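Q: Could you write out the predicted structure for this multi-component system? I'm mainly interested in how the pieces pack against one another.
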Amino acid sequence: MAKNESNKKMEDIISLCKRRGFIFQGSEIYGGLAGTWDYAHLGVALKNNIRNHWWKKFVTDREDMYGVDAAILMNQEVWKATGHVSGFSDPLSECKKCKKRFRTDQMEDSKKCPDCGGEMGESKQFNMMFKTHVGAVQDDTSISYLRPETAQGMFVNYKNILDSYHPKLPFGMAQVGKAFRNEIAPRDFTFRSREFEQMEIEYLIDPKNWEEIFEHFRKEMSDFTKEIGLKKDHVYEHEIEEPAFYSKRTIDFEFEFPFGRNELYGLAYRTDYDLSRHSKASGVDLNYLDEETKERFTPHCIEPSFGLDRSVLAVLSDAYTEDELGGEKRIYMKFVPAIAPVKIAVFPLLKNKPQLVEKAKGIYKDLKKEFGAVMFDDNGNVGKRYRRQDEIGTPYCVTVDFETIEKDNMVTVRDRDTGKQERVKIEDLISHFKKLF
Ligand code: GAP
């Protein structure tokens, strides 16, 4: 996509998110806070649907996963043991003239300020963890950090999971939650935020089987991208040539965002790095005893790591569609029904005809009881309502008209993508939609 075209598409998506109430700038009325975003009703619903789908696929539908919801604040020793305190940093340099700061590795010319052309200062490492103090005394012993990844909240609970549930290898721990990184240059809407949500799995294995299990998760991650509606030819698997020193193999799942191809998810074989480091630093034995072979060893770990906010952004970007319907230009969000924030909207043809409204309200209540995310809409004329529902990606609209009441007890069901309308008997509506979903 040409640069102008891609900028326009991002602007269109951001503007739709604000207009229709998906995502707003964090602390907007105070001028915002860079790198923070607030989800509103429809954005929350979209995010919840993706999160719930992930949890069902990777936790509830399996027999080898244990859910975790660990504290965001952790003992600072955790981050010393993993190397985050000494090494979780990006190179930063400051312009000597305008004092603006940039990530040195993202600059075309690291000696010249991209904003004012001034001379850049020396590049320094900048730690990305947000530091805070826990308790009333602020000294070195009270330091804590907002976690920069959810992963460590699982590794530190490995022994608890083992002692409580006695799982046999291989098994996984799964967690969804916030992570925080003081990114030097937050950018591209929610793509690089300072506060974001991750969905991570730490899958513990006997190293003998790592290749097979890695392949299993590679396929599961690829399937997940399709299930949430990402276009097959927009998702790429990129083998990292030189993975981080603790990883034997890493694949990045990249996505064709409007601003270019960029990382969506990661899959890494982290060896026994994390558990070994925690065992050494805490002095707690984190070995596993294989009861059949009587072998004792530190399990190795395969880590599928997903960004939830990046998933939402990718879904928004692939769903955003402009076309012409009935000779008029329109915008619609082509969400798959499983993750659409609203599944069905019900309208009375006219809002000032009590019989139509009453009938429509009855249908709305029945459908809502069955499908949950159903909306009643009687604002403006039907054409306007269709536009609104198209923009929030509602797959189907149901209209109650005079024929419904006077003639056939049928309603018009309209398909978002094709605009096609069909008459369906009221008593068949639930089974009709069950088939479609
Ligand atoms: N535990 C491994 C880990 O945290 P990562 O590649 O640094 O690996 C995993 O992060 C995922 O988290 C990324 O693939 C991305 O989806 C998401 N992510 C990372 N930094 C982010 C940021 N600043 N804003 C939004 N999402 C981010």
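A: Regarding packing and overall arrangement: The chain has a mean pLDDT of 96.
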